[in-house]
Every structure is written in structure tokens, then in C-alpha cells.
Design goal:
- There is one protein chain.
- 24% of the residues are buried.
- This protein folds into two domains: 6-11 and 91-156, ACT domain (Alpha-Beta Plaits, 2-Layer Sandwich); 15-89, Alpha-Beta Plaits.
- It is built from four helices and seven strands.
- By secondary structure, it is of the alpha+beta class.
- The protein has helices spanning 25-37, 66-77, 107-117, 138-152, and strands at residues 6-21, 45-47, 54-62, 84-97, 124-127, 131-137, 155-156.
Length: 162
């Protein structure tokens, strides 16, 4: 039995990366509260370890909610002048799911090898006990979709809960 039992995808995903001073943890909390007030549904969140007294937080939202992200970012720049924001839209969220992932070495290596062999660079990667979720460019997704199906089986356009 294969460790990865399902692969799902979600189209039209925007990745936003915030860079701010690590001392401004309260700011990051206020930023996410403001996103909520602007009806932005945040999906994946990934934070890097602080480097050079700065923290990077990336998150995903639906492409249709970019206006709310821009509104939030504009308002929050008044509070945090050193805020840097990167935004990348028209991505696809791929979730590789398998209940045995947590007990099986090498699953992430297999997924990363697949992307390397297919000349695709994930924009963001997060994991849980039973899934690996990657954000890739939608053009790359269309190009590698046949290979994804060949290696991992049929894809489903329904989000897989982990």
C-alpha cells in the first residue's frame, strides 16, 4: 500500500509573505485580526525562525480575497512602517495525504524529489501528521498534472482535511 493515498488540489490561491521586526509580535496578531475584519479567510500559515531580528510570516488566501489583503496591508503600514509584503497570486495548493505518513520515513523526500524531477519549485510547504501541503504556480501545475496523476494517482479538486 502506498503511503500517499490521495492528492487534492485547490486553484486560485494567493501567497502573502510579511516581513517585520521580531519584536513586533503584537503587530502580526493585529494584522491577522484585521484580515478577519476584512473577511479574508486565511488558510495555511508558516512562520520562519527570526533572523537578523526580523520574522517572516507567510499565509495563503483565495485569489478572490486579494482586495481585503491589500486593504489590511495598507492600513497596517500606518502602524508598522518597516513592514515588507510580498504577494503572489494564481497558485495551486496541492495536498498529499496519507494516514501512514507520520510513521513512514521519506515521504517528504518523495514529494520534493517529484518536484525537482519535474522542474517545479514550491512557493510554500507545510506539513501535518497526515499531509504535506505545497503551493505551486498554476502554470507549473498544468504542466506537471499528468506526471502527478502518473506517480500519485487520480487528483481530486476537493480539499483534503488532515
Amino acid at each position: 500500500m502506498e503511503t500517499i493515498t490521495r492528492v487534492s488540489y485547490l486553484m486560485d490561491v494567493t501567497v502573502v509573505t510579511l516581513t517585520a521586526k521580531a519584536a513586533q509580535r503584537e503587530f502580526i496578531t493585529k494584522y491577522f485580526e484585521s484580515l478577519s475584519e476584512n473577511d479574508v479567510n486565511v488558510d495555511m500559515i508558516s512562520q520562519s525562525a527570526p533572523m537578523d531580528r526580523s520574522v517572516r510570516v507567510s499565509f495563503t488566501a483565495d485569489d478572490a480575497e486579494v482586495a481585503g489583503v491589500l486593504k489590511t496591508t495598507s492600513a497596517m503600514r500606518n502602524i508598522c512602517q518597516d513592514l515588507r509584503t510580498e504577494m503572489n497570486s494564481q497558485n495551486v495548493k496541492l495536498t498529499f495525504f496519507g494516514e501512514k505518513m507520520s510513521d513512514t520515513p521519506g515521504v517528504a523526500a518523495k514529494v520534493l524529489r517529484f518536484f525537482l524531477d519535474n522542474e517545479t519549485e514550491p512557493v510554500l510547504i507545510t506539513t501535518s501528521l497526515f499531509s504535506i501541503t505545497c503551493i505551486i504556480n498554476s502554470h507549473d501545475f498544468m504542466r506537471i498534472r499528468p506526471a502527478l496523476t502518473s506517480v500519485f494517482g487520480e487528483l481530486t479538486d476537493k480539499f483534503v482535511q488532515a
